[in-house]
Amino acid sequence: MRKEILRDDSCCIASKTLQDDSVIIRILCQTQLILSSPDNNENLKANDLLTNIINELNNFRVVISDSGYHLDEFNLFFTQDGLYNEDGKHALDDIKIEDLLIEETTTTTTKQTKHIQQNTELYRKLYPWKIIKGKMLKMTTEDESCYSPVIQLCTGSSTTILPIVVDVILVCDRTNTFSEIRNRLEQNILKQMDYIETYLEHNIENIKLFNTATLKPYHCYIKSLNQILTIISDNTQPNDDIKQVSLRKQIHEQYNLPYDRPLISKLNAIDFDLEQTNGTRLFNVHKNLPSKVQGGKQTLVIGNYAYYHYMQDGIDDNQWGCAYRSLQTLASWFQLQGYTEKKPPTHKQIQQTLIDIEDKPKKFLNSRQWIGSMEVSYVLQNYLNIECKIITVDQGANMSEHVREIIHHFETEGTPIMIGGGVLAHTILGVDFNEMTGDCCLLILDPHYTSVDDIKIIQDKGWVGWKGWTFWDQNAFYNLCCPLRPKTF
């Protein structure tokens, strides 16, 4: 008898709480329901489909207990009988995750700790966890290789095929044995099948859905919960579809999440390919920087961003492209937080946008002309539909007068700020401020960097770092472009 399903139309599953050294095992299985109904009457057809769905999902639940799992990175598979790798067969209780991983040397010495902090590869990922990808396999006694299970029932004259993707993540401690992992994987897959059944039951009257839908989970990390939520929905529905909006609203309510940011949007799903292969850019390069203000309170950018700087993407923009690069960093924030599918604009797209709104003449395209804070705000508005607030500083010597306004921006909006003045542009990522003494530094990301992406150089040489008020040209006029994030979920 199958477990009683949770009558929760949100179709959302929460992981266990994460730690920095957690290991995530991700298991994929693509299958399909091949359903039939002998009657053309829509009501009867819906009832027949529901009956078939329940029967076939129950059959799949039986298959799960006999299935095995293959972990790609380690070329091993494990079943209820044991774990198999190049060394032979092992008891599930004898092997732990940590036995498969290269031991990470930890130390308390300052030199070695600093080396760990400045490992560039750690900054090519958004999250610190080890991710292991695998697949679910059905065991067979015939002379054929393991394969993903397929559910099918073809007994009537009217046949409907519904693709289903089982995509399960398991948050593990490194000391977990494979006996524990297998049991938890089976529980999580069964739970996901229960939620899929619930989703289909709630949509059974929409027969057309079963001819076009693909039920595919996606996973979002929620920092306030320190958990990953797995959401199951029809991935053919656009992100702004009324059903998708209703689904997200229910989940926000269930987990007491704010309604002013897209925490569980499909656009905010974890990119496992990026996390396992590492990206081409560095992310959040300010991490692990020490404070510079004694007794200060730090107010920082909220969320993730990519570091854009001179000479990337095969473009020699040295001495003219700093504002373009700062704009790209700002745009990356909106992409990485799930506000848009658009990638940060290229130099050409930036210039074309300014031409299209008649801010620049046609000859501006493919030129090496500078842009400033106002142009950055125009592009954000027209390319991403993002409004901006402009803070004007009449001269650099008066920058400190705006510190509370900048702090308020990071507290309420959390977006990086582009600042332009004189002939330079930079990106502000945060404030370190001592209310009692008035001491303050701004966290500055410098787009003028021209070398390879080495986090040690970037941090040690100050290409990202805390800067005092003397960093600014005391006589120059500055505009701060402060993007305002859309209040949406």
SSE topology:
Blueprint: E1 12-14, E2 23-37, H1 42-66, E3 67-71, E4 76-79, E5 82-85, E6 88-90, H2 97-100, H3 110-117, E7 130-138, E8 151-152, E9 158-172, H4 178-202, H5 209-212, E10 215-222, E11 227-234, H6 242-254, H7 272-277, E12 297-300, H8 322-336, H9 347-356, H10 373-383, E13 388-393, H11 403-412, E14 417-421, E15 424-433, E16 440-445, H12 455-460, E17 464-467, E18 478-483
Parallel strand pairs: 2-7, 2-8
Antiparallel strand pairs: 1-11, 2-9, 3-4, 3-7, 4-5, 5-6, 10-11, 12-15, 13-18, 14-15, 14-18, 15-16, 16-17
Helix pairs in contact: 1-4
Q: Round the mean pLDDT to the nearest integer and report it.
A: 87
Supply Rg: 26 Å
Write the H/E string, N to C: EEHEEEEHHEEEHHEEHHEHHHEHEEEHEE
Approximately how much beta-strand content do the residues carry? 15-25%
Name the poorly predicted regions.
Answer: 1-9, 103-117, 141-147, 150-156
> In total, how many domains does the architecture comprise?
2
Distance between the termini: 38 Å
The major beta sheet can be summarized as: 8 strands, mixed
Protein name: Ufm1-specific protease 2
Pfam families: Peptidase_C78, UfSP2_N
GO molecular function: deUFMylase activity
Family: Belongs to the peptidase C78 family.
How would you describe this structure to a colleague?
By secondary structure, this protein is of the alpha+beta class. It folds into 2 domains: 12-275, no CATH class; 281-483, Cathepsin B, Chain A. It has 12 helices and 18 strands.
Concise summary:
This protein is an alpha+beta fold and 489 residues long. 28% of the residues lie in helices and 24% in strands.
